[in-house]
């Protein structure tokens, strides 16, 4: 993985488009012209290191294919070797998407982890959370009452998901703020090409996250609740997760729960601010919020990029892949593929096929929290604009400096505007 990163870095210095699309800081702000440049070259492009695609059909096929696996690949190692790996790499520095994170391993190991966690995210359980989500949104808006201006990200978009996921994982209220800060510091580890300084900062945050999680697990072992972590701690026999597995599963759900939905909510508010007529339509047609959320996911995908590695020799769109060859899947670009979406750069909350996007990926790693994220965003936005019908972006929004995650660091809003 590290080697691949440094090779991509070297390519980027040479100005090669495929490498630049991962490494160039300018593209963090606006990757969309580069997506179109790549699209013009055909469904799959390659340099001598790696392939890349912004083609919806190709991304969809690769994500669903069992001839491709995740970059972690640890799923292929037998258990004793995995233990050795944990010993060599200090497990307290593992990020939420490092193996043996569910997101970084392939079946059959992946299947085992996913089955344990999926029980907490069935459509029925998530459906029942609607009321709780609305209550959290209402409480947050109450706290903001009387403020004419506030930072939407800090005070609302980040708080709602962290409160919901903390409920799900049994996290005490007092720990939530600290976890959010640590999660933000650790989120940069998703991006390739970190500077040494960024890496050390993230590593310090990760150590603190693991230390916190160890204490959390001990508390729940002594006094289990009906949360997901208690369920995982209580697993027995064949199903039992070793401590490293437990940490990686728990931290992934925690981080995925609050590092992504915040971006979705922020991106939605920014887009609706640019399209006030569509906001007014939604205010008159609140049943449209669900589709609007999918259109935001399509147009400004919170997760822009993922990577797959060929596990055996295979062919996609007429291109041969040797085992070990990687392909960068630009989900944010696939979601603007004109072969699937008419006038793809246009934002249209009534677009009929908005939900054909790949913002939640596809195949075995399809986002486990997709229905929760959709619910949170729809409720958050509807509640926000009901309380503040004239809410507008005010001041200067600041984008997050990350490449994989797309969202805002700061989004100042004013509630004083007229409808
Ligand atoms: C996986 C996106 C919210 C939990 C994924 C993947 C994507 C994604 C793209 C797969 C990456 C890949 O295939 O390489 C998003 C977006 C979200 C969101 C855009 C919000 C807007 C959530 C929430 C949770 C969650 C709220 C949990 C509470 C997970 C988990 C996985 C995952 C556990 C790993 C699934 C697996 O490997 O089988 N997500 N996610 N996500 N997501 Fe989400």
Folded structure, characterized:
The protein is an alpha+beta fold and 419 residues long. The protein is built from 20 helices and 12 strands. The strands form 4 sheets. The chain has a 5-stranded mixed beta sheet with strand order 1-2-8-5-3. It has a 3-stranded antiparallel beta sheet with strand order 4-12-9. Protoporphyrin IX containing FE (HEM) binds next to helix 15, helix 16 and helix 20. It comes from Nocardioides albidus. Keywords: Heme, Iron, Metal-binding, Monooxygenase, Oxidoreductase. Belongs to the cytochrome P450 family. InterPro entries: Cyt_P450, Cyt_P450_B, Cyt_P450_CS, Cyt_P450_sf.
Keywords:
single chain; 419 residues; alpha+beta; Cytochrome p450; five-stranded mixed β-sheet; three-stranded antiparallel β-sheet; globular; binds protoporphyrin IX containing FE
